Amino acid sequence: MLGDRILVASDDSEEGRYATEVASRLRGEHAAPLAILRVDQFAPSAAPGGSSPGALAGWLERQPRSATSWIAQGVPGIEISRFGDRHRASLIVLGRRDRAGRQPASLGETADAVVRRAGIPVLSVPKGSWPFRRGLVALDETPRSHQVLDLALRWSREIDLPLVGVTVTQNGAGATRRSVAVAASAAGMAGTPPAIQVSLRTGSPAVEILEEVCAAEAGVLVIGYRRGGPPKVVEPTETARSLLLAAPCAVLTVPL
Predict the structure, then answer these.
(1) Burial of 79 (C-beta count, 10 Å sphere; 0-12/13-18/19+)
(2) Which residues contact 6 (CB under 8 A, 6 or more apart)?
(3) CA distances, 17 to each of 25, 63, 169, 175, 206 (Å)
(4) Which residues are CB-contacts of 215 (< 8 A; sequence separation ≥ 6)?
(5) What whole-number distance in Å separates Cα of residue 181 and Cα of residue 179?
(6) Quick one: CA dihedral 218, 222, 225, 231, positive or negative?
(7) Which one of 61, 79, 94, 163 has the fewest beta carbons within 10 angstroms of its own beta carbon?
(8) Which residues contact 107 (CB under 8 A, 6 or more apart)?
(9) 8-state DSSP, 29
């Protein structure tokens, strides 16, 4: 995964600079190609306050010499996803602002568009989240969990990240038995030894997963994320969107 190109969406904001720092460190010994993309919604002459040519040149000069830097025009959420597909990136890294508690609850426009459109994993990093000391992968009772777990395992091995799992059922003995089966399957995929430990919880999925993030002291949460659909306010029943909005750690979304 990290042997391929990493794309980081950056700008002159604190979040953008932090995303670039994390992406640079993720490369590590893998020496994966790193592309840094800045997207301006307007040409410098098209809108008051737009980036001047001098400011863009200064931004380019400040980027790591070991990376390739690009500037695009358009809607950031569209252009970032398009660039990732066109240049065959294996991972997109975004800075993430703290939006928890906002009314109405909504994801940032760019982050929401990228995770809905991208056909590759997207890592959203809030300031202070690096280094990742432990990863937590959220699993459900569908076959899609194998896809999420497989990527989480490969990624954790590449960056030497301890990984644990969690699965949540709302109620019922049948659901509990299925969760146990998910946990057993996860242990088998991870191999023995070591086996991945999966916590079993009962209740609201988003609430319980967030509690497990804190209990496991996870620095990054790996979740499956359905592609497509329009931008909208985050409903309490939307587990993946709720987690991306409220998780206190970095979130790696795996497109489904």
Answers:
(1) buried
(2) 23, 26, 27, 32, 33, 34, 35, 89, 90, 91, 93
(3) 13, 9, 39, 44, 29
(4) 199
(5) 5
(6) positive
(7) 61
(8) 99, 231, 234, 241, 244, 245
(9) G
Q: How far is the C-alpha of 222 from the C-alpha of 152, rounded, in Å?
A: 7
Element (H, E) at 201: strand 198-202
- What length does the chain have? 256
CA 69 and chain centroid, separation: 21
Return the structure tokens found at 194: 């070591």
Residue 93 exposure: Cα atoms within 13 Å on the Cβ side = 30
* Residue-wise pLDDT tens digits, 155-212: 998 889 999 999 998 765 555 555 556 665 665 655 544 458 888 898 999 999 999 9
Half-sphere exposure for 150 (CA within 13 Å, toward CB): 7
Output the pTM of the full model: 0.84
88 vs 58, residue with greater confidence: 88
Enter the tokens of residue 160. 């030497």
Taking only the tens place, the pLDDT of each residue in 199-213 is 889 899 999 999 999
Please check whether residue 132 is in contact with residue 163, taking contact to mean a CB–CB distance below 8 angstroms.
no
